[in-house]
Amino acid sequence: MNFVQPIRSKEKLEQMKEELKRTGTRNYLLFYTGINTGLRVSDIIKLNYDDIRDNYSNMKSHISITEKKTGKIKKFPICNGLYNELENYTKNMVQGEYLFRSQIGTNQPITTTQAYRILKATANKLGLEEVGTHTMRKTFGYWHYKQYHDVALLQTIFNHSSPSITLRYIGISQDEIDKSYYNFSL
Fold first, then answer.
1. What CA–CA distance (Å, rounded) separates 179 from 120?
2. Which positions are annotated as active-site residues?
3. N or C: which end of the chain has fewer CB within 10 A?
């Protein structure tokens, strides 16, 4: 199993978004949703129109899903840029339509394998290594931690059992280890 990393550079993050936009709105929004929600790819690909719009086609304030891996309910607000992107992206969709539809079949979501291919191909173009579908979730966690410095909150968001797991998961532990080596000399 390959170990993936968060995208730690804002510049590379913007390049990734721009390159994905060139490949299509679906691909861009898949990534944008991942880095702004911290959802696992298995939950992102299952999102549909009804998860973000009500019966009157109005945008919902929150997304509420049952996580595939844990079976637990996760509820979070649709905030800032993601709200605008989803509102625009879904304006011509219908109830029950998957947000990230496959080109194969009728109203089927893309697979996690296809999501991986999309992200990996884009990362390769940009010279990014250690990128996979989990990079989206880890990137969310990394930048959330950098902004709020609240490992307990992030631990709750990710449903991790300890702060050390969360810090290791988002690459902060490795950053601290690397920093200690760079600043160490005998």
1. 28
2. 40, 69, 134, 137, 160, 169
3. C
